[in-house]
Amino acid sequence: MHLYSPGDRAIVTTLGVVGLLTLVIAIVNYVNLATARAGLRAREVAIRKVVGGTRRALMGQFLFEALATVAVAALIGFALAEIALPFVNTLGGTQLALHYFGRDGIVLPMIALVLVIALVAGLYPAFVLSGFRPAAVLASTRAPGGGRAGARLRGALVIVQFAIAIAFAIATGTMLAQTAHIRDADLGFHREGLLLIRSFNDSGLDAAQRADILRSAAAVPGVTGVTVGNNAPGDQDTTNFSGYSRPGAPDRKISVINSSFVGP
Description:
Distance between the termini: 22 Å
Strand order of the largest sheet: 1-2
Number of domains: 2
């Protein structure tokens, strides 16, 4: 239903992109923090290798740590979503709910998402940490941090993170300005106290029943007027165009456009 019209599809796509970019920021944060802390764990890795630890085992350990971090973050996200849902439903007049199991359950997709994110976020830190050489680490007075390549990657990730955050700030400001304009714009009619009854035009009602409904509505205390119309303000948007051939230009092109818009 929410993908029927192009406008609805654009809204759903936009919200999906926002969620995806937010997830990218979280992944970048984890990679940056994990690689920045690599120097603090270099000697731990060196000692593990000295006592017989393999690189594969170390990568498995670091990937498991990433998986545990992502799983805890998912649980916290579920808790925050449950806390925020009543406020969202109150503000938007909706009845949104989280279904954990069943046909619309989100547990199984979330488990798959947690595994994918843990692999994406933890693979590079695990590769860097497990690649330390024990002799060089234990003989050095300064713990390694990934070298120039690691520093460049962290710098690039920070740039990407701040670029996405700045884009979010600009988009949020634009949306707030548009919302304020819609709220304060002169619509040409007063919408306060305006009640729309769409079922009045139902085919199950005859003319006498409609007249009785109008008289009953007009008799309600506080009602200043009632009327019947084919369309409601903001309920119809039509565009018609005609194409004409011009002298010297035989191609048929759109030359006249007639747009009709009722209400905001």
